[in-house]
Amino acid sequence: MELLAFFDQLWLARLPILKGMGVTVSISLLAICAGSVLGLGVGLALTYGVRPVRWLVRAYTDFIRGTPVLVLVLASYYVLSAVGLDLGPFQAGVLALAVFCSSHVGEIVRGALQSIPKGQSEAAKAIGLTFSQTFTSVLAPQALRLALPAWVNTAAEMVKASTLLSIIGVAELLLRTQELISRTFLSLEFYFFAGFLYFVINYGIERFGKYVERKTSTPS
User: Fold this and answer.
1) What are the pLDDT digits (tens) for 121-178?
2) Contact 93, 30 (CB under 8 A)
3) Domain architecture of the chain: domains with CATH
4) Tens-digit pLDDT profile for residues 167-207
5) What is the 3-state secondary structure (H, E, C) of 16-85?
């Protein structure tokens, strides 16, 4: 009977759940894209920047990576508001996740670039390629293949971290689920269903990563 009641409540609540899932996907996608772009710059600075720049970027990376995501979320919403930068819950959540994502992507990019043998850069320089040509034609394709698995893991972590945004009132999937549970008292059923939806999102990210990996793989 409880299972029938769950499916009945699930059908009645289909629109709020879909809206919550849409918010989760939107926040995660924006945070992953913005964090990846910023992280690329962080990784390049850590690898090729002059020493003062490397020190500053290293301090930023270590500080952000050592800070819990929840603290970043609360700081983005409350601290920035206290200094005059008023962000809505959605914008503050995207900012916090993007900053956190950038620190991890920066380390992934740095590790991928530094793992490429230096002889390839020297060979490119010897045939007259500029640094930008060497990076785009020689280093970046190899770094992408090396960084992709770790990037997929980071993207999946951003989806999981989006659950923390319910604390500042973002109506994402977890908050919608908790609202349904408070009304129906079907906690186990709705939490399992929410977990299934998070799995679907992360499975989509994994399949996208596999697709890009196939497209960028070197023919054997």
Assistant:
1) 888 888 888 878 888 888 888 888 889 889 999 999 999 999 999 999 898 999 999 9
2) no
3) 20-216 (1.10.3720.10)
4) 998 989 999 999 989 988 888 889 999 999 999 999 999 99
5) HHHHHHHHHHHHHHHHHHHHHHHHHHHHHHHHHCCHHHHHHHHHHHHHHHCCCHHHHHHHHHHHHHHCCC
Please, are residues 126 and 59 in contact by the beta-carbon 8 Å criterion?
Answer: no
Residue in 61, 48, 200 with CA at minimum distance from that of residue 118: 48
**Which DSSP string corresponds to 134-188?**
HIIIIIHHHHHHHHHHHHHHHHHHHHHHGGGGGGGT---HHHHHHHHHHHH--HH
CB neighbour class for 176 (10 Å; exposed up to 12, middle 13-18, buried from 19): buried
- Give the Å distances, CA to CA, from 29 to 94, 106, 210: 9, 18, 17
Cα end-to-end span (Å), the chain: 57
| C-alpha–C-alpha distance, residues 164 and 157, integer Å | 12
Q: Could you give the 3-state DSSP secondary structure of residue 130?
A: coil
Residue 32: how many other CB atoms lie within 10 Å: 23
